[in-house]
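Supplementary Note 2. Why include the ligand at all?

Several targets in our set were suspected to adopt different conformations when bound, so apo predictions alone were not considered sufficient. For every target with a known small-molecule partner we therefore ran a joint prediction. The input for 1-deoxymannojirimycin is given below.
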Amino acid sequence: MTTPALLPLSGRRLPPLNLGASAFPHHRATLRLSEKFILLLILSAFITLCFGAFFFLPDSSKHKRFDLGLEDVLIPHVDTSKGGKNLGGFLIHGQEHDEHRHREEEERLRNKIRADHEKALEEAKEKLKKSRDEIQAEIQTEKNKVVQELKKKDSKPLPPVPLPNLIGINSGEPADPDIREKRNKIKEMMKHAWDNYRQYGWGHNELKPIARKGHSTNIFGNSQMGATIVDALDTLYIMGLHDEFREGQEWIDKNLDFSVNSEVSVFEVNIRFIGGLLAAYYLSGQEVFKIKAVQLAGKLLPAFNTPTGIPWAMVNLKSGVGRNWGWASAGSSILAEFGTLHMEFVHLSYLTGDPVYYNKVMHIRKLLQKMDRPNGLYPNYLNPRTGRWGQHHTSVGGLGDSFYEYLLKAWLMSDKMDTEARKMYDDAIEAIEKHLIRKSNGGLTFIGEWKNGHLERKMGHLTCFAGGMFALGADGSRDDKAGHYLQLGAEIAHTCHESYDRTTLKLGPEAFKFDGGVEAVAVRQNEKYYILRPEVIETYWYMWRFTHDPKYRQWGWEATQAIDKYCRVSGGFSGVKDVYSSSPTYDDVQQSFFLAETLKYLYLLFSNDDLLPLDNWVFNTEAHPLPVLHLANTTLSGNPTYQ
Ligand code: DMJ
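The joint prediction is reproduced in token form.
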């Protein structure tokens, strides 16, 4: 009996076994039962052998599934040019030679794996000989290396851009000795605030001047980001406090780190940190401030990842997760927050050549332009998921204020090229004048708050900035109403001065009413505090620049004296809880904006106008001066008015 030859490596199938009559014709008659049995045994042994060979021989398809880069070694190839034939992926011609090569390669690989194993074992043994401390130190060194590498990458110099014309960075020293003396007093107050923060709160966000320790609020998250240092830098520079400025710069260079697991307010970080760093960069030319500003801006960008592109109020600097304030109407974002990014973001795009920042704020603008506005007014709340307004409340004070300010300043900052922003400002101001601005019985002009179709006759301290805004926007106003807006600015300044003058401490309350016989006076106990806010002094300064009416310097000096008398303590400056009380209690917080804004505006009020002239500089809402960008020749992609 012959059995068909097996070609185990060929993979050929065995011919089918025919156990019927045609398979063994000569034996048909003579086959007995025992012979049949032996034959069956032989056949079954043969089948078992075939199955064994089939299952235990190497399977090339398995090798193919793991891509170890070894395909060239383990998968047989057919070089058809040399007459080889591919039969089911196995070689017939030249097979022996390749099998040999194949075995050699396998051996080489096995040796390599063995050697690697031994090496790893040796290294592990060596490690185990070291003490725990040594191992930890090694890990730390490795970590530090990685951090250093990342830092190097982060602090790569940014592409050079032509610096805008920086005019008016000078001492602004007034000739009049009386004015000089007043200005020196304000400088001394700045030094008192800074030195105490330096001593007791260094690196913390703010200072508790009575407890003499650091202070922070949730707007800065839970980390120590030195908010006072960053916010105060440009004031120190302008006042010529150069040693203090250098101390601040050194701290920022070495310690200001934004890779922290901390949830911060996008708005506050933008106006205080990015604004502060950019202003410090433009004034001093020190590259570190620009680099830090850009790093920080990168950390804020994830806040814009919402269904509409309207940013969240808060973002975690590490994870990039954003959310809104729990108290805001229907999960809304706040107009004054997402509407107060434009100036800083345009500068960031200008300095980096990266349009991402510019595109983010222009997207917000475009979205707002498309929306219906009840009575032409912008409500304070906008839902970033649905793109719909929340409650129909409108305010030129808290929640709304700096949105209007930034429309005007976007136009000014673009060298008056951004006419779209100017139009939005003009439209908004017209609606505000129509619906929110009234005269009290006693003849005081005030700006109320619009709540669901009803005017609340109450004005906030924050709203007092609007006097300065109206004056700043007078030039270039629609229908040439410059005189009207300058007058409106003067009336608001007067009303706000009255709110100071009608208190015991000569400091303004947080909010004041014009209702039921009350004029410019706080009624509720929780609106009687003064927390070192700048808005009234800010308006005095703008009014001074545009009119040179000496009453603004006089009012500014009254406020300076009141602050020095009632808010100064040996550990710095504190807010007071009741401006109508002759024995006020302190809130024990030295706000960073006291150094950034209040003292800066006071100092400028008693300086010459050629220090930071308003034709060349635009102050952000935290009083950080940014230069006008003559963008006529610069392309910031996206807005045709800039091209
Ligand atoms: C500052 O942080 C800014 O002026 C902001 O726009 C609102 N108010 C505070 C100070 O009062």
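Residues 402, 462, 533-534, 593, 597, 621-622 surround 1-deoxymannojirimycin (CB under 6 Å). The two ends are 95 Å apart (CA to CA). Comparable summaries for the other entries are listed in the accompanying table.
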